[in-house]
Design a protein that fits this description.
The protein has 214 residues and is of the alpha+beta class. Helices cover 35% and strands 12% of the residues. A hairpin with a 2-residue loop joins strand 5 and strand 6. Helix 1 runs antiparallel to helix 5 and helix 5 packs antiparallel against helix 7.
């Protein structure tokens, strides 16, 4: 297979279609979204004994492997702001229940468990997520946090989709929000508006899987 071909989930419209086509099964294992969103970093959690072959190297790979589920260009994700000025990326843990993951060689951006930057060091860096986002559980018993890799997460994927929809929609409709976004991304305004609008608008189903170069 041509290495340049990627399954790029590049538009919110595509996400909505996937929600009905396949992600329902994932959501069944993602919990009800009632986690406190302030789960400690892996170093502060007690790892469950999951066998001798499950070591720190395998865990790091599980948390940050690129499985092709690109969400949007990473520069966009970093530039998106809520109306109150907070970074949208900061909401991954505080609002949606994903587990913080400290900066490391495999997670240089310090993204939550299961989130990563695909194509690092290139002009086509993409915010991506993998199975670990919805399949890593952390629970607290008697004040001690326990990490269960592969367990169902206590996160809210539907709320994340809705949050993406709202923040991008607001960026497109609010002139001040778009101006701030454009200043951060540093792409000509007309070009950027076209790209973001195309990403945001639901495509025909036959265009669900396609590459989006920035």
């Amino acid at each position: 297979m041509n290495n340049k071909l990627k399954y790029d989930i590049r538009s919110w419209g595509a996400w909505r279609r996937l929600a009905f086509l396949g992600l329902t099964a994932i959501l069944a294992s993602c919990g009800d979204g009632t986690g406190d969103g302030s789960v400690s970093a892996p170093s502060a959690a007690v790892a469950m004994n999951q066998g001798a072959e499950w070591n720190a190297t395998n865990q790091a790979a599980f948390y940050s492997a690129d499985q092709g589920s690109w969400i949007m260009p990473y520069e966009w994700a970093k530039a998106l702001k809520l109306p109150n000025g907070q970074s949208f990326l900061s909401q991954l843990t505080s609002s949606y229940g994903y587990i913080p993951n400290p900066v490391s060689p495999t997670n240089p951006e310090g993204l939550p468990v299961g989130f990563l930057v695909a194509n690092p060091g290139t002009k086509n860096q993409q915010l991506s997520m993998n199975c670990a986002a919805c399949h890593t559980r952390q629970i607290q018993v008697d004040g001690i946090k326990h990490r269960i890799d592969g367990g169902p997460a206590v996160s809210n994927l539907y709320a994340l989709f809705q949050g993406i929809d709202l923040v991008v929609g607001n960026t497109l409709s609010d002139a001040a929000a778009f101006d701030a976004f454009q200043a951060a991304v540093q792409v000509p305004a007309a070009t950027l508006r076209t790209q973001l609008s195309t990403w945001y608008t639901p495509p025909d189903f036959c265009h669900l899987v396609r590459k989006f170069e920035v």
